[in-house]
Input
Amino acid sequence: MIEAWMIVAIILSLMILIAMIRLFLGPEISDRVVAFDTINTLTVALMIMLGVAFSELFFVEVAIVYAILSFVGTLLIAKYIGGEL
Output
């Protein structure tokens, strides 16, 4: 059963790498912000999936805190780009 979880973890990691390419090569700042938010979302999904795979509640707790911080970070970046900060 762990092998199936590892395949999913590898796929999520590849998706994070693809989003990182968009983050670094994005033509506009909005593309980079969306890529940054996508990386954060995929990272949270990866942490929760690993927590379920290894039956560790710690991964899920860290994922929840990371999701809250990434949401606040995305809001701050959006406000900065919008000129409100």
In short: The chain has a mean pLDDT of 91. The radius of gyration is 15 Å. The chain is about 90% helix and 0% strand. The CA atoms of residues 44 and 67 lie 6 Å apart.
